[in-house]
Batch of 3 targets.
Target 1
Amino acid sequence: YIALDGRWVDGDKERLSDDDDASDSNATPILQRPSGARSATSYPLPPRRFTRYFTLIIVLILVGLGLTLARLSALSEAQLRSGEAKPPPPPPTWESFPFLKRYHGGIRTLISRADNKPEFPDPDNNTLESTVQKDQQEQTAPSEEKGFQKRDIPQGQRFNPVNQDGVVECYLNEERKSNVPQLLAYPGIPKGFPDPIMGSYELFGMNGDVCFERYGRLGPYGLGYSKRWGGSGAGMEGHREGSDQVWGGKTEIDYREVNWAQAQQKCVQKNKSRFKPLPKGRKHFFTDMPVGGPEDEKPKREENQDKKLLPRQAVVIRTWHDYQYDDEDMFYLRALINELSLQSGGEYTIHFLVHVKDNDMPIWSDDFTYQRVLNESLPLEFRGMGTLWSERQMSLIYGGIAETNYRDLPIHGAYRSTNMPLSYFAHMHPEYDFFWHWEMDIRYTGHFYHLFDKVGKWADQQPRKGLWERNGRFYIPSEHGSWEDFKHMVRVQTEHGTAHKAGMYEKVSGTENTQVRTPPVWGPMPPTGEGDHIETENDPQPPTTPEKDNYSWGVGEPADFITFNPLFDPHATNWILAEDVTGYNTSAGFPPRRTAIITASRLSRRLLETMHRETALQRHSMFSEMWPGSCALHHGLKAVYAPHPVYVDRRWPTSYLAAVFNNGLHGASGGARTSVFSDELQHNFLGTTWYYHAGFPGNLWKRWLGYKVDGDGGEMEEVEGEGRMCLPGMLLHPVKHVDLIYEHREGE
C-alpha cells in the first residue's frame, strides 16, 4: 500500500517489523521512552487510474461537442448566406402585447357599463408604438399596492328574456309542477372590465349591462350542491357568498329523476296553438320499404292567416356515440334545453345528431342494435332525444358523388361533409323552419334564449344591399364607429377599392379578380364552369337594380344562413381547405365560394333542402365550413354574419388589429393571400374568445368556474380578493375537458 509520504510499503515486512518492535518494547522499562521515530502510514486508498481515465473521457467529449457545435454553426451561417436555409421566423407581434387583467374582476367591484372605464380598448393608445411605449412605462414604473376594501355582493336579479305573452308554462315534472328557476344576473360589470373588440351588444339590442357569476348561471343545472341531492358535487369550494340566492328558497333539483325528452314534448304540446301546424312526417324509405312512395306522404301545411304563428326551430347538437359526458357537459346541455325549449314555451326543440363511427355496427338492419346504441350514446336524462347516423348511411343517400379523398379524408366523412347528416335530418323533419347547428364545445355565459332570439331577429331585418360585402368584414366598433358608419365604409371600399398590397396578388392568381373595383353581389351568383348545372327555378331574384334600391330589399326577410364569423372569400387566400370542391368543373377556376370558420350557425329549411338536392342530384359538395355559404351565394339566398361580442386577451392596438383582421382584398377579411384566414396567419385568433383553436376561451371559462389557470385565480384569490368572477354574456369556443373538483363523500 501507499504511505502518506508516497512510499510503497510491504505489509508483511511491516508486520514483522512491528513484532520486533513489540518485543523490544517489552524489554524496555515502562518509564523509558522508546528510541527511534516510526514513519506515519495510512489506510489503503482506491486507485487513481479510473478517475484519471474518466476525467480524460469527459474532457474529450466536451471538446468534441464544442467542435461539433462550432462546425454546425458555421454551416448554418453559410446556408443562410447562400439562401439554402431560412432563419426561424420571429414570434408573432401580438405576443409582445401585455395581457389584460380585468377580465378576472370580482363580483364585489360591479359598476354600471356607462360609468365603467374599460381597461381596453384605450383610445389614447390605439397604435402599435403607443401600446409598446405604455407597456414599457408600466413595467418600469414602481408598483403601487392598492388596498381593496371588501364589499358585500349586490342583490341579484332574475333574468328572463322571454316574452311571456301567450306562453303556457312548462315544467320539468308536470305532476309536481317543478321547474328550473330563472337565472340570476347582477347589474353592471366588474370595474375596468374590457369592452368587446369585435361586435356589439347594442347592435342586437342585447343587455350588456349585466353579468353572470357561476352560481347564478349554472347553479340551477347542478353546480354547487351535493350529489346526494341530485347535483354534481362540484363547485362546493371557493367564494360562495350569496350562492343560494338563485334558488329563492326552493329545493334543489334532483337531476337523477329528470326526463328531458318527455318534458320537452309536453311543452310543445301545451303550446301548439302558438306555432304553425305540424306537417305529416316522412318515413325512412330506405329502411321501411313501404308500399306506395313519397308522393303519398307529401307534407302539407294549412296556414292560418288569422293569427301570426311562430316558426318551429330545431337546435341540432352534433355528437358521437362514444362521447364521454362529464358533469360540466351536463350543465351546458341542461341549460340549452331549459332556456331554449321549456322557458320559451317550445319555440326551440333540442335534438342530438349522434355519429356512429363504427360503419359495421348493424344499426340499420336490427332494431334492437339501433335502440341499444342510441341508449348507450346519451346520458339517461337525455334518452329519447337522439338520432343516429353513419358515414355508410350518407354514402347510400348521397351516392354517386366523386370520392376525391381530399387530404386523405373521405367525402362522406364527418370532417369534410358535416352538413350531409344535417341536410338529411332537415329533409326528414319538415316540421321545422330553422335549424341551429350547434357543437358540444361551445359555452355561453349568458342566457341562450337571449342570444338566439336577438341574433335571429337582427339578421331578419338586415337589407340585402351590401350584405355580402359587410358579411366579409370584422366589425370593430373602436375603429369603425357606429354600424351606419361601418356600412358606409364598406360601400366606399366596394365601389372604389383600396390601395392595398393585396392587389399585387390579383394578377398573379390568374383568375377574374384582376380589376381594382370588385362588383357587389346582387342576387344569385351561380357557378360558370362548363357543365356546372344548378336548379335556379326557385331562386329569389332582385326586384330592382342596386342603384335604385334604398336598402329595402331583404328587410323583414328571414335569414337563410346566420354565422358567427365573417363569410370570407377563400379565393386567393392560403386557407388550407379552399380547394376542397367536389363535383364542379374547376379546369378554368373554382366556383364562387364563401366560408365561415366554425360550423355553429342557423340554417333555414330552404337552404338545407337546396343543399340536399345539390348534393343528391347534382353531385356537388364542398368542405363543411364552405358549403352552406357557397350554396347560399349560388342561389341568391340571404346569408348574414352576426357580429356578436368577441373579446381578446391582450392589449392590441386597435388600428393594428383592424389592419390584421381585415387585411384581405379591398378591406375585406378574405380574397387575398394576406387574409387573416390564411393558414400561416390564423395564429392571430389564439387570444380571441371565438375561433376553432383559440386558447383564451377555455382559460377564461375555467377561471370563471373558480379554478386556477397557469398559477392565477383559485379559491384563495376569490375569498381574499374581489370575489368570484362575473362575466357579461359572451360566446366561448372551444371549451374542452374541464376537470371539475368534487366534494369528498364518505366511502369514496
Target 2
Amino acid sequence: MGFIPYGIISKSHGLAGGVRLIIHSGDLSNLESIDSVYIRTGDTEEFTRYNIEGHSLSGKHVVLRLEGINSIEQADELKGTEVFVDDSQIEPAGRDEFYYYELEGLEVFDSNNNLLGKVIRLNDSGPQELLEVRLTSGKEVLIPFIEPILVEVDIDNKKIVVDPPPGLLDL
C-alpha cells in the first residue's frame, strides 16, 4: 500500500465536524471509490486513517464527514493538513494521462534536451496550472503548464520537456 497526496483541508464546514477539502487535481471522478483518507499531522511520519462517513459538494470544493471528527473544534485542528489516499483506491490513469502527484520529482528539460531542473509540484490554485520547478541553480520558477510551452510529459521516463519563452526562467 502506498499513499498519494490527494488534497488539503482548507477549513471546517458546519458545526458537526465537516471539513472542506481542496482536491489537488480538481478531478472528482475518483471520489466515489475512496472510502478512507489518511492524514499526517505534525512532524511525524505516522498516518492516521479516517473513514469517510459521507461527502457533498460545496461550490468547487468537497465537504467530507470523517469518522471521529464530530465538532467544529476537531475539524479546525485539521485545517491546513494534507490528505492522502491509498493508491489502490485510485483508478489507474489512462493512456497518455497522468495524475498531478506523478509529476513531482520529474526532471524538466528544454527542447534542446538541456536539464533545467526538477518539478516540485503542479500549482492549480490560480486561473491556469503552473509547474513549480527548482532549477539546477537552486532557484524556483513557475512555468505555465500549457501548450506551446509544455512540449511533452513522459511519466515512464520521468521527464517533462518545455519550450519556455525567452526570459521566463530569469523571472
Target 3
Amino acid sequence: MENFYIFLGMVVVSLVSGNPTVEVSSCPGGSVLLSCSCKMRDLSEPFRWQMANNKEPVSVLREGEENLTEDFKGRVESFYKENPSNCSILLKNVTYIHHGIYTCYYRSGTFIYTSVNLHVYGATNDTQPTNCSSPVDYIISPTANKEMHWLISIPIMLGLLLLFLFLYRKVQGRANERQRAQIHRSVV
C-alpha cells in the first residue's frame, strides 16, 4: 500500500509541474518566435531545441556553438548570448517542413522543458488567412495556455486528494479493526 501512496504523490507532482504546449502559427515565408524562458538554468549545461516529428535537433546551443540540421541552417536566431535566461529562438523563412512540435530542454537542478506546437498554414488541409500574402508573425500568448492548465489541474488534484483521503480512511479502518480484534482476543 505504501508503494501506491508514492505513486499517487508522483502523479500529483507531475500534474502540478507539467508544462503545457504553447500554440504558435506562421504563414510560409514568415518568421515565428519559439519562446523558452530558462531562468535559473545551469549555465555549465547546454540547452537544446528539438523537433518532435523527426527527432533531429533543431538547434543545439552551447557556449556560442550552433549545430543545426540542414532544414534549419540560416533560419534560426538565438538570444541566449544577450540574455542567458532567454532560450527562445526565432525561426525565419518558415516552410511547411517546419510544421510540428518543438521542445526546449535545459537543466535547472533537473531537466525542464517547454513545448511549442508550430502550425504552418497550408502544411495541412487548412485554409490560409488572407494576410498570408505578406510574412506575418503569429503568436498565441503562452499565458492563456497556462491559465487553462491550472483550470484543468485543480479538479484533477482535488479528485486525487479525495481518493487519497478515501483510501487513507479505509486503511485506518482496517487497522482499527485489527487492533480491536487483538484486544478482543487478549481479553477472551
